[in-house]
Write a structure and sequence with these properties.
mainly alpha; single chain; 0% strand
Amino acid sequence: MVPSRAVDPGPSTGSIHDQAVRWVEGGNGAIMLRRALDEPPPPEQRARIALELGAAESVGSDNEAAIAHLREALDGELEAEQRLRATMLLATRFAQSH
């Protein structure tokens, strides 16, 4: 497995949403994705960002936040593959919370 590395998006290169997507693989994803949701993102991007944030939080120990963001993602507009991913992650979070 190739180790992930942080990617510096540089100053003012795109919106916070674009920066968040670039930073996910570098381990800074949850921080940037939280900022992206707080900005707020364009409505058509919100569910996808919530999904990515929930996925990042699923790797960490913030189970409650992961569940909340995965539910938010499923309430929004996602493609079929994204919806399946969110559903599987959410089911795993529920299983691990009990």
